[in-house]
Amino acid sequence: MSDAVAEKPKAITSRHDPRFEVTLYKYIGVENSHTLEFYQSHGGYESAKKAITSMKPVDVVEEMKKSGIRGRGGAGFPTGLKWSFMPPVDGRQRYIVCNADESEPGSCKDRYVLEDDPHQLIEGMIIAGYAISATKGVLYIRGEYYLGYERLYKAIQDAKAAGLLGKNLFGTDFEYEIILHRGAGAYICGEESALMNSFEGFRANPRLKPPFPAQAGVYSLPTTVNNVTSLASAVHIIGKGADWFSGMGTDDSKGFHHVQVSGPAKRRGVYEVPMGISYREIIFDLAGGPTEEVKAFIPGGSSCPMFPFTDQYLDMPMEYASVAKAGSMLGTGGIMLIPQNKCMVDALYNVVRFYAHESCGKCTPCREGVSTWLPSMYKKMLAGLGEKGDLELLEDVSSNIRGRSFCPLADACIMPVQASIKHFRPEYEYIIEHGKSMYPRQSRWAD
Amino acid sequence: MKVKVNDVELDLAPGTSAIDAVFAAGYDVPYFCSQEYMSPIGACRMCLAVVGAPRKERDGSWTMDEATGQPKIFYFPNPMATCTTAIMEGMVIDTLSDVTKKAQGGMMEMHLINHPLDCPTCDKGGACELQDRAYEYGSGHSRFIFDKRHNEKHHALSELITLDRERCIHCKRCVRYFEEVPGDEVLDFIERGGHTFIGTVEEGLPSNFSGNITDICPVGALLDTTSRFRGRNWEYDHTRSTSLDDASGSAITIDARTGRIERIKAALNTQVNKNWIDDGTRFGHEYAASSDRIKTPMLRKNGKLEPVTWEEATLFISEKLKKLSDNQLGIALRSDATLEEGVAAKSLAEYLKTGQIDHYPRYASSVISANPASFNDLATAGAIFVMADATEEVPMVDLRIKDALKGVTPPTLMAHGVPIADLRLKERMPRKTNILSVAAPYRVDLMKYAAHSMVYPTGTEVEVLKQIIDASTDAGKALKESLSAAEKAVIVLGAFVLNSAEASKLADDLAKATGAKVMKLGAMANSFGLESQDVLPAKADYSYPNMLSGSAKALIVSGLNPAQNAEVAQALLKLELLVVHDLFENETTALAHVVLPAKSGYEKEGTVVNLEGRYLNVNPAPVDGGQAVDFTGFVKELGDALNERLEGRSVRSARRLLKKSLELDLSELPLEGTIASAKAGKVAGLKTNTSGNALLVPSMVRSEYLNRNAHLFASTGGNALRLHPADAASHNLSAHDVISVSVGGFKRRLSVQPSESVPEGMMLLPALPDQPVGLVQLDLNSIKKEQVALEVA
Amino acid sequence: MVELETLKPFFAERQDVLNEILGRYPDYGRRSAVMPLLWEVQREERQVNEARIHEIAEILGIQPTEVKGVMSFYSTYHEHAIGKYHLQICSTLACSLAGSDEMYDFISEETGLVNGETDRQGLFSIQKVECLGSCTTAPVLQVNDTYYERVGKSRCQTLLEAFRRGEMPEPWRERYGDNEGAEKAKPLQNTIKTGGNA
Amino acid sequence: MSVFEIAKGMGVTLGHLFKKPVTVTYPEQPVDVKPRFRGRHHLLRHPDTNLEKCIGCSLCAAACPAYAIYVEAAENDPNNPTSAGERYASIYEINMLRCIFCGFCEEACPTGAIVLGHEFELADFKYQDFVYGKPDMLVGTKGSKWQRREAEKKGKDVKIGLKSGPRPELEGVDY
C-alpha cells in the first residue's frame, strides 16, 4: 500500500496463466446448455438485467469502448466505437443486426455459440440493443446451420415466454424483439451490406458505402451490425467489467478470441484464448501439435494470407498489429494447417474455387477475374498444361483484381493467392515446368 | 468545391461525382455501368482513377506538406471508382497516371474475356460502347486463353427485344432501368458470380417502356427486334426529330437506310423526354416502310383509280373547285399535322373562301390551359392529380410523374451535358406515392404507383370533379387540400375530362381554386399547335363531323379515314369532290375522286407544339416515299394548277407567316424546343356520345397502323377488346378470340382480352383517329368470331 | 407448364404458416419474407418451381422475376427436385485436407450420381458444396439439414446403408476443444427420424 | 560504232527468232495469270458444311473505296441455315463497273468469305448486268454473267480464258 498507484497486473496472454478462465465457451458442449433453464441457472441474463436496470445506454457503450474489444467477424473494427456511430435518437426505428452468417472457410466459432448457447447470444443482443437504443434485433443465421436455427428459434420463443424479450424488460420500459432470419447459402451475406440486402429480400449484392449502416442500414434505418462472438462478449464485459476483459491480451488487442484449429492437428477444435497468445501455444499446446509435417498455416480463415510454419511466425503473438505487420490478418481466428505433402497449387485452387463459387457477380474484377479467370488458370496448371509465363500472368491478373473490386470478397481471394506465390513460388514453378505437382495427391480420408 | 483533375482546376458544386469532375475538366475515363438519369453503382469498375484529398487536423486546419508548404494530399491506397466517389474540397484526381492506366486496362481485359467479340454479326457494332472503349483503353490482345462462357444467344425477351446473353457485361443498366425509371421490375439478374445472366419470368416484359434498354445497353446484348440485322450503324442516316406519335413531343432519332426507316431510338431532350421514349413510339415505325404505301397521285377514271401525275391530279381538283361557291369545301387535317401544314391548309381555305376547316381528332374543349404545366413542373410537383389514362395518352407524362415520386429534381447540366453519375440517385429509392392521386373510369397503369386512386363510373367526370371542388366527400376534400397545400401542384387532364366542356370547365375551376397548374393531354402530336393556329371551323356547324354529314359539298381530308363508318361512307358518295391525302389505300380512298400520296411523320419537315406549348422541330428522314408530299406540298401543287402562289406553299413559306404571328423563327429552334405562350382557340363544341356499352380508350400504340407494325402486332396481340371476365363469359367470348364487330358503325377487328381491371358492364377498345375516345355502342349481335382461341391441350 | 398451372396454391392451406412468417417482419419489410417462404416451399416440395415463384410474388406484391432473381442467387434453393436424402459434401480446404474429395468419389460411386444429379427414384441427390462451417470436425456430410461430422469411410458406408433403409440416423457429436470431454462420441444409431428434411 | 557491236545487236535479234514466242493467241488459247492477280470476286462456302462463309456484316461495303458493294442481312432459319451463326447476307451485290479491284473487301472480311479470283473477262452490254448478286459470285459459279449466258445459249460448258491454279485463299474455286 506504499505506492499510490498499485502496479497494474500483467495482462493475461497465455492459456497457461492460472488466472485465465474459459468464459464465453464455458458451457458449450454441456448437455442441455441450449435451454433457458440451464442458462438461467448458470447466471444467465444477469448482465442484461444489470445493463438495463442500472446503466445508461451511453455507459454501456463506454464500457464496451473501455474494454477495447474489436469485432470478431474478421475486420477487427472496435465494437464500442461502432456502437457510438449511431446517429442521435430521432424516433426512427433502429436495428441491431447479428451477423451469424459464418461462412469463411476455417471458421466455426459462431456455430457452437448458436447451437449450444443461444441464450448467451440473445442476451448479448439485448445489451447491444439497449446500448444503441434499438428495439429490434435481426439475427441473420446462415441457412446451413439448421440445428442452430432450430435452437435459436426455440430460445427466442422461450425468452419471449419468460419475459426476457418483448415489452418492459426487467421492469423497465425498454422493449426488445429479435427477428430470426435464415440465409440460404451465400458467403457474400457475411458482408454486412449484402447481409442487409439479403435480409430485406433482395439479391445479396453488397451496397454502396456511404451511406454506412449507422445512417441507412436495414430498411434504410440506422443499423449496427456485429458478429456473434462480439455480441456474446458484451454479456461478459458488462457482467465482469471492462477491466476484467482488458486484463487479457496486449495493448493493441484486448480480451479473448476464439481460435479454430483445422487441418492435420491432433486435437483440431475450437479454443478460447487470450489475445497475445503465441501461435505455437495454440497449435502445439492446445491443438496437440500437427499429426504430420506442416509447411504453412493460415492464421484467420481462408482469406488471410498464410504464414510458413517457421519459428518466426509460430512465436508471433496473436494480436492485430503483429499479424498485420507480418502481412496477414487476424480474421476470424480460423487457423488452418497445411501439410507438407499437400500441393500448394492444389490447396490454393480449392480456395480460389470457393471464392469463385461465392462471388456475387456484381463487379467485373470479381465476376470475371475471381469467378472465371483465376480458377481456369489454376485448373490449367493442375492439369499439367502450365506454360512459361503463367505464373507471371497469374501475378499480374491478381494485381489487376486486388483493390479494384466493389467489396472485399475479391481481395479475400487474391491475398492468399499472392501469399502462396510469395512463400511457395518453387511449387508453382515446379508444376509449370514438370506438368505435375511437387506433391502428388494422396488419400487423406480416415476410416 | 475546388477540385483538380490532372492539370485542370475546377470549381464544382458539392455532391458532384468525381467522374463528372473528370468529364467537366475535358478528360475522359471509360465507364459502362453509369448512365445518365440513373443511379451510379460502381459495378463495372472501369472508371478507376487515382484519387487523393487533403486532410484536416483536429483544429480544422489542413495538414500541410512540409516540403511544398501546400496542404498534403493523401492518396487513397487503391484507385477509386470515380462514379461513386463524391468530390471533396481540394480533391486531386489523376486519370493519366500509370496506376490509373493499368487499372483501367486490366478491367478492360476482364470485360472482354467472356465477351464473344462477334462484332461483325452484332447490330451494335460501330455504335458499341464496349467496342469504342476497347479501342481506347484495351491492350489489343487478350491473355485469356480459355473457352469463353457460353450462354443463350438470340433469346427473345419479348416480341420486341432480343437478348444475347453471351454479350452481356453485367453492367446492370437494364435491370436498374426497369426498377428506377418506369418502376416495373420485370428484368433481373438470375444466378450469381460468373454464371449471372439477365432474365425474366414474366413473358414479354410487361412494361410500356421496355425498349429503352436497347438504347442504354453498352453492348449488343439487348437489341431492338424490329431493326435486327437491318443494317450496320455506320450505314444508317441518323435524323434527329420529334415523335408525332403522341402529344409529348419526345425527341427521337430516326435511323434510315436506303430510303427505309429501320429503327427509332430515343434522343436526348432534357426538358421533355430525357433519354427515354415509350414502346409505341419506338417500335411503331414499321408501317412507314410498308410496301403498300401510296406512292403516286391517283385519279378515278371510269370508276377505277389510276396513277397520274401531280399536274393531272391537281388540274382535276382545281377544275372541280372552281365550280364550288363559298363555304362549300371542307378541309380536314389529322391532329398530328405540323404547324406548317396547318398554316397551309388555312391559307388554302382562305383562298378558296371556305370556313369549313378543322383538325381531328379533337376534344369538346380546349387543350390549351391558362396556367400550363411543363414537364419539369410535373417532375418536381408536390401533389399530382391525374384524371386520365396518362400512360396510354401521353406515356411520357407517366414517366415524368414517376420522377416526381422519387423527389429528386432534374440534374443541373454540366459542361459535358447531363451528369453521368448523379449521386443523389440511389438504387431502390423509396417512392412518395402519397403525392399522386389518379382517377379514371377503369383501372389504369398509373394507379399502381398512386396512394389514392379512384375508378369512377364512365361518364361521371362532372360528378367526380364536383365532389372535389365542393369537398363534399372525404376523399375529395383530402385531395383538394393536398393540391392547395402543395407548393407545386399539377392537375393532369386527359380525354375523358376534355371531352366534356362542363367537366373541363370544372377542372379549370379546381385548378384556380387550388393554385395548381394544368397539363392537358392533347389528342395527338400537334393538337396544341393546330388549335393555337386556329385551324378550326369558322362556326360550330362547320366542324369535321358536320362536314361528313353534309355541310360540305367537296372534301379534302388528310390522314383521316371517315368512310370506316358505313353511314358516313354513304354520305361521302354524294360529294362532288373527295380528295384523300393519305399513306395507304383504305375505305375512304375507295370512294375518293383523287388520292394523293402523303408523307409519314418521319418524312415531314415542320414544327409541332407539344402539350406544354413547346415548339419542336420535326425533321425529315431520308425515306423513299415516292411522290409523297405533306400538306404544304399539296398546297403548292394545287396553287400551281390554280396559277396562284399561295401562302404556305412550302415549309419555308409557312414559317415566314408564322414568324410574324409568333415572333419565333421556327427554323432556328433550339434542340430542346421553345415554350411560347398561347391562347386557347375558339373551340366549337363537338357533340359527344353520353351513352354506350363500350368505351373507346386511348392507346400508346397507333391502332390504325397496328396491323402494319408486325412486331408490335405480335407483342400486343392486335387491337384488344378488354372486358370483365364475367362479361366475357356472358358474351360467350374467351381470351385470344379474334372477333370482328361493328362498333358505332365502324367495323373493328379485335382480339378478346378479359381483364379484372375493367369494370363490369363496360367494354374497352382502342380509339382510332376517326373514332376518338368516348362512349360508343358496340353491337353485340354483330360479333363474329374469326378465329377461336386455341385451347391449350 | 400446364401441369404447374393446375397445382393447388401452396399457402392456401397453410395460412397459419404464412401469417406467422409475414408476422415476423415489420409492415415496411414485407419483402423480407421472400426467403422464409422459399424455404417453406423447398422444405415441403424439395424444389421451388415456377408456379410457386409466381405464388410467392403474388403474396409479397412483387414481380415473379424478382423472386426468381433472389432465389437463384442462393445455392440451397433448387429449381429441380432434389432427392429424399440430399447429400451435400463440403469440398472446401479444411474438409479437403480431411479427405472430402475421396468421400465425394466414394459417395458418387456408391450412388452412381455425380454432382448436381438426383437419382430416378428420388432417393439421393448429391451436391458438392462450399464451406459448411465444420472445419474443425472435417470432413462433413450434410444430409438435408443435418450435419454428420468426422465422416470416415466406414461411417459414410453405414450412413448410406441407413438412408437406403429409409432411416435418418441421429448425428453424433465428436468435438475437441474447450468443450472436449463434455460429450463423447456416441455410437451410430440406426433409429430416430425417417426421411424428409429435418 | 564498230561492226562487232552491230553483230552483237543482231545476235540478240537473231537469238529471239528461235525463242518460243510470248504472245498468246487469246481467246483461242488460255492466258497465264499471276497468282496475286485480282479479278472477279468469289463468295466462298465452308467446305465441310457447305454453309456460306458470308455473315452479312457489311464490313466489305464499309471498306470499299468505290462504294461498289451493297449488303443486306437477315436472320438464319435455324433449321435450314444459310450461313454459320445467326446472320447471313440476304442480298449481296457488287457493281463491277464501280469496283476498282483493290481487294480491300477481302482484307476487311472477318470470315474470309469474299476473295478476289482470277477471272477478268467481265465485259457485258447493259449496266444492270454489271451488278453481280450472290448467285453470280458464290463458289461453283464459273465465269462472268455474259460468259454464262453465252454458254447456256450454246449448250456448252463455260469456258474461261485463263489457266492457273487458284490462290490458296480461293477455297473450292476451280479454274
Describe this structure in words.
The complex is a heterotetramer of chains A (447), B (793), C (198) and D (175). Chain A is an alpha/beta fold. Helices cover 42% and strands 11% of the residues of chain A. Chain A has helices at 36-41, 46-54, 57-67, 79-84, 109-116, 118-131, 146-161, 192-200, 228-240, 242-246, 279-286, 311-314, 320-325, 344-358, 364-382, 390-401, 409-434; strands at 95-100, 136-141, 177-182, 223-227, 256-262, 269-274, 294-298, 307-308, 334-339. The longest helix of chain A is centred in the C-terminal third of the chain and has 26 residues, at 409-434. Helix content of chain B is 24%, strand content 20%. In chain B, strands 16-15-26-25-24-17-18 form a seven-stranded mixed sheet, sandwiched between helices. Chain B has a seven-stranded mixed sheet with strand order 35-30-34-31-33-32-36. In chain B, strands 1, 2, 3, 4, 5 and 6 form a six-stranded mixed sheet that branches. Residues 181-198 of chain C have low confidence and may be disordered. Chain D is an alpha+beta fold and 175 residues long. Chain D is built from five helices and seven strands, in the order αββαββαββααβ. Chain D has helices spanning 3-17, 59-63, 104-108, 134-137, 145-154, and strands at residues 31-32, 41-43, 69-75, 87-95, 114-116, 131-132, 162-163. Chain D has a three-stranded antiparallel sheet with strand order 3-4-6. Chain D has a two-stranded parallel ribbon with strand order 1-7. A two-stranded antiparallel ribbon of chain D has the order 2-5. Chain D is elongated, with a radius of gyration of 21 Å. The N and C termini of chain D lie far apart (52 Å). Chains A and C meet through helix 5, strand 3, helix 8, strand 5 and strand 6 of A and helix 3, helix 5, helix 6, helix 7 and strand 5 of C. Strand 6 (269-274) of chain A pairs parallel with strand 5 of chain C, so a sheet runs across the interface.
Give the helices and strands, then pairings:
The complex is a heterotetramer of chains A (447), B (793), C (198) and D (175).
Chain B: E1 2-5, E2 8-11, H1 18-24, E3 48-54, E4 73-75, E5 80-81, E6 91-94, H2 98-113, H3 129-137, E7 155-156, E8 161-163, H4 173-180, E9 188-190, E10 197-199, H5 212-216, E11 222-224, E12 237-242, E13 251-257, E14 260-266, H6 279-283, E15 298-301, E16 304-307, H7 310-322, E17 329-334, H8 339-351, E18 356-360, H9 375-379, E19 383-387, H10 390-393, H11 395-406, E20 436-440, E21 452-455, H12 461-469, H13 474-485, E22 489-493, H14 495-498, H15 501-514, E23 517-520, H16 527-532, H17 544-551, E24 554-558, H18 566-572, E25 577-582, E26 594-597, E27 606-609, E28 614-618, H19 631-642, H20 651-662, E29 674-675, E30 694-697, H21 710-716, E31 720-723, H22 725-730, E32 738-743, E33 746-754, E34 763-766, E35 774-776, E36 784-787
Parallel strand pairs in B: 1-6, 17-18, 17-24, 19-20, 19-22, 20-21, 22-23, 24-25, 25-26, 30-34, 31-33
Antiparallel strand pairs in B: 1-2, 3-4, 3-5, 3-6, 7-8, 8-11, 9-10, 12-13, 13-14, 15-16, 15-26, 27-28, 28-29, 30-35, 31-34, 32-33, 32-36
Helix pairs in contact in B: 2-3, 7-19, 8-20, 12-13, 12-15
Chain C: H1 2-5, H2 15-24, H3 34-45, H4 50-60, H5 64-73, E1 85-90, H6 93-97, H7 100-111, E2 124-129, E3 141-143, E4 146-148, H8 153-164, E5 176-177
Helix pairs in contact in C: 3-4, 4-5
Chain D: H1 3-17, E1 31-32, E2 41-43, H2 59-63, E3 69-75, E4 87-95, H3 104-108, E5 114-116, E6 131-132, H4 134-137, H5 145-154, E7 162-163
Parallel strand pairs in D: 1-7
Antiparallel strand pairs in D: 2-5, 3-4, 4-6
